[in-house]
Structures are given as C-alpha cells and as structure tokens.
Write a structure and sequence with these properties.
Layout (H helix, E strand, L loop, with lengths): L13 E7 L4 E6 L6 E7 L4 H11 L2 E8 L11 H14 L4 E6 L3 H11 L4 H4 L2 H20 L4
Parallel strand pairs: 1-4, 4-5
Antiparallel strand pairs: 1-2, 2-3
Helix pairs in contact: 3-5
C-alpha cells in the first residue's frame, strides 16, 4: 500500500468510479482520505481493465463504484445488459476488490452542468471524454456523500 513519506502516514487505497459506455469509459478516483472524487481519465472500453490494474498498482484500489443505469423512476434500464458483463469482467479480474453498482441517473446531464458552472469553455464542454470523466466523478462523489462514515 502506498505511504506518504513526508509525514509517515499510511495512505488508504483509493476508491475508483466508473461511468461505463460502449465507446468511452470515464474514470474517477478519490483523494487518499476518501473525501473527494476527481475525474481521472477517459479510455476505450477495451483498455479500462488495464487502466484500473495500473491504478491498483500505483495507488491501491479498495473499491470500484460502477454507474448503474436506472430510469427516472428507479427501474433498471436495458443499458444494464452492457454494464453487467463489464461488472462481471471486473469481478473476475479484480476478485479482491469490492465492486459496487451505483445509481447513475442524470450523471451526464449533471456533468455538463458542472462543467458549465466551473467556467469550462463551450468547446471543452462538448468533449465527450471530459463529460464521461466528470460523470464518473459525480457518481463516485454521490457514493462518498451517501456512505459517509459507513465505509
């Protein structure tokens, strides 16, 4: 597990957030104290398992929060048929890491609004990669906020 040599404190493994799509996967990561989520990367779905493996080696990963597609009423959508096989692959590759499905309703719309609110240029706000990474960060932050001290 990585440690901070500056203060001698052992750092906790990170929590990773995923906004899975067939064209792009947004990845977010927590700070060492698990207080804040931040966009980390966007990659091709064929590369995401290797990216997570690299993160696990560099930072340590204790949990992976995967956006789970639900309707506005809270019912599962047909998109789950693409997300569940991805979760199955995660569980096979990272058997020692907890995988958690998390409500991703409106995450892309909220990500677009957050980018606008942050003053990101109109051209940059159109970047699907930026939106996917921001959506992953919102999914992860929702998890952190709801779980609080329960983790």
């Amino acid at each position: 597990m990585p440690t901070s040599e500056a203060d001698g404190l052992e750092l906790r493994p990170r929590i990773v957030g995923i906004d899975y799509g067939t064209k792009r996967v947004g990845i977010a990561v927590t700070d060492p104290l698990h207080m804040f989520a931040q966009p980390f990367d966007t990659c091709d779905p064929r590369e995401v398992l290797d990216r997570i493996a690299a993160m696990a080696g560099d930072l340590g990963v204790e949990s992976i929060i995967v956006g789970w597609p639900l309707t506005p009423e809270g019912d599962e959508t047909t998109a789950r048929t693409m997300v569940q096989p991805f979760i199955d692959r995660l569980q096979r590759r990272f058997a020692d890491i907890e995988i958690i499905k998390w409500d991703e309703r409106f995450s892309s719309e909220r990500a677009k609004q957050a980018l606008y609110d942050a003053g990101v240029s109109k051209k940059a706000r159109r970047s699907k990669e930026r939106i996917n990474a921001a959506a992953a960060a919102l999914i992860l932050q929702d998890y952190l906020d709801q779980m609080g001290d329960k983790r």
